[in-house]
Amino acid sequence: MNKKAELFKAYLEENKITCFTMQEINDERGSVVFRSTISVEGQQLPTIVILDNSFISTVRVFVAANAVREENEKTLLQMINKMNAQQKIMKHYFAEDGSLVIDYTQTSKAEELDAQLMMFVILEVIVKHLEAQYKEIMKQVWA
Question: Judging by beta carbons within 10 Å of its beta carbon (0-12, 13-18, 19+), is residue 14 exposed, middle or buried?
Answer without folding.
Answer: exposed
